[in-house]
Amino acid sequence: MSEQEQIKTVLDAIDRPSFVTEIRHALDTDSSGDPAVWVWVVLEDDTADSDEFFERSEVVKTKIVQSLREAQIDRWPYVRFRGQSEQAELDRAEAA
């Protein structure tokens, strides 16, 4: 199994709260040239407006980082959050 497939398997297995609609990732390097995995957590649009957003996002981020570490993924995880509408715009722009 490739590293890309291994990371996808790990991310797909994470128990996600209902407000997480998707988790995407890409392998690359960070600004210092070290191996990194960029993870984008796609959320229902109204989640970011919630008073509990910070706590909720930290729980998801912690699960992702712990799962990657337990799977012995050596890349540094960078976890970011996007709303569904933002992701849809990015997908449309990429397809054009």
- Count of individual helical segments: 3
Overall helicity: 40-55%
Strand content: 25-35%
Q: What number of domains?
A: 1
Across the major sheet, the strand order is 1-2-3
Q: Report the radius of gyration as a whole number of Å.
A: 14 Å
CATH architecture: 2-Layer Sandwich
The residue-averaged pLDDT reads 94
Biggest β-sheet description: 3 strands, mixed
Separation, N- and C-terminal Cα atoms: 32 Å
- Secondary structure tally: strands: 3
Structural class: alpha+beta
Q: Unreliable runs, pLDDT <50, ≥5 residues?
A: none
Descriptive keywords:
96 residues, three-stranded mixed β-sheet, 43% helix, GMP Synthetase, Chain A, domain 3, single chain, alpha+beta
Report on the structure:
By secondary structure, the chain is α+β, with helices and mostly antiparallel strands. It has one domain: GMP Synthetase, Chain A, domain 3. Helix content is 43%, strand content 28%. It has 3 helices and 3 strands. The chain has helices at residues 3-13, 53-70, 84-95; strands spanning 20-29, 35-43, 76-83. Helix 2 (53-70) links the parallel strand 2 (35-43) and strand 3. The radius of gyration is 14 Å and the shape is globular.
Quick synopsis:
The chain is an alpha+beta fold and 96 residues long. Helices cover 43% and strands 28% of the residues. The protein has one domain: ANL, C-terminal domain (GMP Synthetase, Chain A, domain 3), CATH 3.30.300.30.
Spell out the blueprint of helices and strands.
Blueprint: H1 3-13, E1 20-29, E2 35-43, H2 53-70, E3 76-83, H3 84-95
Parallel strand pairs: 2-3
Antiparallel strand pairs: 1-2
